[in-house]
Structures are given as C-alpha cells and as structure tokens.
Amino acid sequence: MAYKATSETGEFGLIERIKSIVQPTLESAPELVLGIGDDCAVWQPSTELLQVSSTDLLVEQVHFDLLTTPAKHLGSKAISVNASDICAMNAIPRYALVSIAVPPSMPVEMVEELYRGMESAAREYGIAIAGGDTSRSRSGLVISVTVTGEVPEKMIAYRNGAKEGDIVCVTGTLGGSAAGLRVLTREKLIMMEHIENNETYNRNLMADLQEYTGAIQQHLLPLARLDTVRFLHERQVTPSSMIDISDGLGQDLGHICNASAVGALLQENRIPVNSTARLIADELQDDALGWAISGGEDYQLLFTISKEEHKKIADNRDIAVIGEITPKESGLLLKDIYGITIDLTSLPGFDHFK
Amino acid sequence: MAYKATSETGEFGLIERIKSIVQPTLESAPELVLGIGDDCAVWQPSTELLQVSSTDLLVEQVHFDLLTTPAKHLGSKAISVNASDICAMNAIPRYALVSIAVPPSMPVEMVEELYRGMESAAREYGIAIAGGDTSRSRSGLVISVTVTGEVPEKMIAYRNGAKEGDIVCVTGTLGGSAAGLRVLTREKLIMMEHIENNETYNRNLMADLQEYTGAIQQHLLPLARLDTVRFLHERQVTPSSMIDISDGLGQDLGHICNASAVGALLQENRIPVNSTARLIADELQDDALGWAISGGEDYQLLFTISKEEHKKIADNRDIAVIGEITPKESGLLLKDIYGITIDLTSLPGFDHFK
C-alpha cells in the first residue's frame, strides 16, 4: 500500500472514497430521499415528530491528539458525541452531516480510517451519513458533525423540567474518560522522551495498558446511551429533564438546575465511579471521585424523574439514583461519605473555555 | 471600549453574548420549539414538506483572510453560502446551526461582529440561528454552518433532472467575486510591502476602491438568490435541475451534466459577465470571461428548464439564457463570439482541492 497524501487525490477523488465508505449507513434510512452528491441532503420528516438537531466542532490539539487517538476511534467518537446530544433530548438520532478540513500532508488512508470509524458508529446507532463538506486545512485536522434526530412531542426531555422532589439518575459509570486521558497523556510523555533521547520507542510497551482498557475505551470510544433512550421509550417513561455528561457531572447538573430553577443534593456514596478509574487514581495518587464529578466526556445520561415514574424503570441496574432535586435556594450540594455537605460549584472544572 | 480576549470571557460568557446577538432571528420562526440553550435545537417540521440540509466549513487562510475580510462580512457570507445551497434545491432556508473555533487571542468584539453579520444575513433570509457550538482553536478561526430548509416534494430541484433540449439559465452576473478577490489580494500585498518597509500604511488609500465596489461586494458579501427561488415558487415553475455557482460556471454545469448524463452548449455572448469584473480585468490585463467561467464563489443559481416552462419566467431580466442541454456525447462546450467551439473541461479550475 503506497502512501498517498490527500493533496494528490483532489477534492472529488476524496469525496468518491468517502461516499463508498459511508454508503452502508444509508440502508437504515428509508426516509432519506438523497444522500451525498447534491447541494443538500434531503429527507422526509416522520409525521407528528419533532426534529432535534445538534452540532459539534472537534479541533486537533484542542479536542484530540492524533498521537494518542487512532483515526478510526476519532471518527467513531465524533459521531457518538453528537448522537449523545440527540439522546439527551430523549430522541432517536437519524441523519448526520460531516465536514472535515484536512491538512494536505495527511495520508488518504488516515482520512479513510476516520470515515470507517464514523461509518461503524453511525451504523451502530442507525444514523445515515447523508452529506457534508471537505476542505483543506492550513494547520490541524478539524471535524464538524451535525446530527438530526426525531422524537414525539410528548416524549421530549428538555433541561428545564426538573421539579423539587424529583430523583436524580445517571447511566453507567463516571470518571472513566478522565482517567483514560490521564493514562494516554502519560504514555505520550514517555514516548516524547524516548524520541528526544533518540531512543527507539517500543509500541509493544503499550501492551501493559490492558488493565486500563475500561477507562481508555471510555475516553477513546465513548458510546451514546441510545440503549437507555430506547429503554425509556419502551417503558413509556419521559424524564422531567435530561442532559448528557460532556462537561462533567457537577457542571451538567448545574445546567439542569439553572434551566429548571431548582437545586440538587447528591449522595457521594451513590455516584457510580468507574472501577478502572479508581485503579488508575490509586496509581497516580489522584482522585477518582473528582474525575467522576468534574472530568467530563463520559457521555452518560443524567436525568431527573418523578418518584412515581421512577418505579417503572427501577429494575434497570445500569441506571443509578444519585440524589434528589431540592429548592433553588439550597444550591448544588454533595453529601460526602462522612455526612459533610460540600458546595459542588466550588469544585474545579466549571468552565472549560479558559 | 476595552480590548477583551475571548480567553477572558470563558465559554459560557461568550455564549451569553452570542445568544443576545442572534435572538432577533428567532422571531421569524414560529415552528422553532427551542433555540440555543439545550443539547439540541428543536423544531416542528412543516407537514408535507421535505427537509433539506447543507453544511459548510470555512477555515482561516484557506477560505478567508481576516486582513481583507471584515468579521461582519465574513459572518454574513458564512450564512449566505449555506442558504445558497438550500436555494439550489429550490427550497426555503429555515434553521441554522453555527459552530466556531476561536483563537484565544481573538478579541470578543471581533467574535461579536462575526455574529452580527450572521444575524443580519439570517434575518434577511428568514433563517433562525437555532444552535451551535463554541470552542477554542490552536491556530486560525474556523466556522461551520449547517442550514436546514423546506420544500414541497414536487418543487424540489436536484442536479440530475436536466434533459436534452432544456434551456440553461443563470441568475445575476458572473466573475465579480473572482475580480473582487484579485483587487483585495493586490491591496493586501501593497499593505504587506508598507509594513515590511516600516512605512505607515494609510488605510485611506483604500478609498479609491470605490469603483470596484460591484466586484468586491460580490466577493465579501455574496447573496443567496432566495429572491429567485421565491419568484420560481410564485410562478409555480420547477427547474429540471439546479445548482448554485460556488466552484465556477463551467465546473458547476459539469456537475449537472454528469448527474443528468447530458451535455451542454453555452454561448459566450450570452454569459452575463459582471461589468466591474470587466473593468478590473482591463486594468490587470486579465480575462473577465475566464473569471466568469472558472472563478467561482458568485453564488448565482444555474438551472435548466424545459422550453415551455421557461415561457412562464421569460420576463425576468435577472435570469439570462446562456445555452442549451445537448446529448451526453456532445460533451461540455462553449461557442465563442467567433463561432469557434471550445471544450469547457479543458479550461483551468476544474478541481479546487489541490
């Protein structure tokens, strides 16, 4: 297999390769009238359903590092984080538009791997990759994904519906993504040191990362919780509010509380901390609970629900009850294992732009 | 007014500023259930209408140069180029999602200007800016816009419907954008020279650009031809195929001919070359017709239509008849003013990725 830079294939050559890779995702979309190949993607909206749409921009060196992120994983994650936003409305993701800006020196094979990852994730969720844009970049790789989904009006879950007395629930485990990132960053530093000392870096050293898989996978290949949304639809349960955890449990709960004009009280011992994150925290003498609360990027669903509605889903062991909604004046609190109450907003990680 | 970098406002501070700027665009959208502020934008699709969606990624130093492009114009153009894709389907643009990646040093004022330009263009087209994403960039500014529109199924215009004997039409004038870019690039080189020689650059020198306005405006502030789409709807005329001119008349006609499996014969003397472009071409000893055919970025609509249907719109002086559709075997030809036939695909500008 010869190395070929994207600058050699030309834009239309690249689009043809991309089209053939994402083609299988179209099979799940009978309402898609037209995919890639015209000025727009075209679909027939389902009768009586709302359209919900979300977009994310992923920038090299800000959101990802190609030294520690395989292109295929990156493609999968780009689809998953947007699908997760759709799930956070209790909606079903349907169509994706994908744009990339590619440095001219980037190998075509790498761009293809990126799209293979997208195709694989899209097929997993039943999303049709229906269009997009390709262009050059003068610096790093940029990926922009927009996903549109559908949901019946009476089942949509906004951020602003949490009510005093509601239960706070979260899916899966938390802190895995932050822990995985710590391990990958450490590996990268070791690798850079080898390179600086002109030593050969042995990729096989990474074999002993095996025990960290539960965290690294959560960071590199997070999954949108479409399974939870399907479960909620099956049980005909609509959360009073919902969000996906991208900024961190504390900050995302803050978004719900702000929008709903309520407070919340979480119980530390109920927070489902990722077990691999605990292992890594012990090794690095860091704090797994801190990662669970402020780490972000776990893409679990955080939702509130009335006590009566919760009975209908209480048998799901993958949904943890972690606290309850309180009056606004009480603020955003965490009761720790010693019974001491901490103000969640005083913790770090409450603004990731700076 | 004090200088403030985006790194000082934080992500949520910036989002609040952006929300207040784009707020007025929401008034035109009664079907928009929810704009910025949740995980997704939410809208109620109009009954019986298809949804059409298009996305574009604009990268600093590839698609624009902040030395020659005012931020407000750039914002307007980012909306217009996507609205133009929607118009190219004979559809009405409705909702936009906008993402930006901002270098931390960029002044907040500049980001606000960018959104003021978007707001102004969006309001012009009746588009609601309903959501998006903000993030840091490690290098230049990146803008990603996705616009969704609506159109009745029987009025949609694809690229693949052109038929032998159809008339080829184009709106407005061509070559203005390429000519405007040439003038701006020349000004930039003069400016750079002044800076290199440590001379003070006098911005007032740019005052004599007045006579080039017709071309510079076409480059910096192109308008999507929504007026033409509304006219076609009023007259109940559906083009057999349509595209907007982003790559250049020759290349975009090539897209229609490829998709429709037909050829085309254009008449040079019918091509509406922008008059300011002619003026600039004379000065720079360049070729205005070349810019009209291969320059691109004019965002006019190029469409084919049957002779009978054309009668219904023949009174529109802003729509020029420039040729006709021929059998596929005839290829893509231009008859020049001397009656000599040239192969359009032999001209430069048929792949802009390299």
UniProtKB/TrEMBL annotation, chains A, B:
EC number of this enzyme: 2.7.4.16
Keyword field contains Coiled coil: no
GO molecular function: ATP binding; magnesium ion binding; thiamine-phosphate kinase activity
Matches recorded under CDD domains: ThiL (cd02194)
Pfam family, one: AIRS
Record domain PurM-like N-terminal: where: 37-151
Keyword Transferase in annotation: yes
Associated pathway: Cofactor biosynthesis; thiamine diphosphate biosynthesis; thiamine diphosphate from thiamine phosphate: step 1/1
Binding-site list for Mg(2+) 3: 39, 85, 244
Keyword vocabulary terms for this entry: ATP-binding, Kinase, Magnesium, Metal-binding, Nucleotide-binding, Thiamine biosynthesis, Transferase
Residues noted as binding substrate in the record, renumbered to the chain: 63, 297, 350
Residues reported to bind Mg(2+) 1: 55-56, 133
Protein's job: Catalyzes the ATP-dependent phosphorylation of thiamine-monophosphate (TMP) to form thiamine-pyrophosphate (TPP), the active form of vitamin B1.
HAMAP family in UniProt: TMP_kinase
Protein name as it appears in the record: Thiamine-monophosphate kinase
The organism of origin for this protein: Chlorobium phaeovibrioides
Primary gene name: thiL
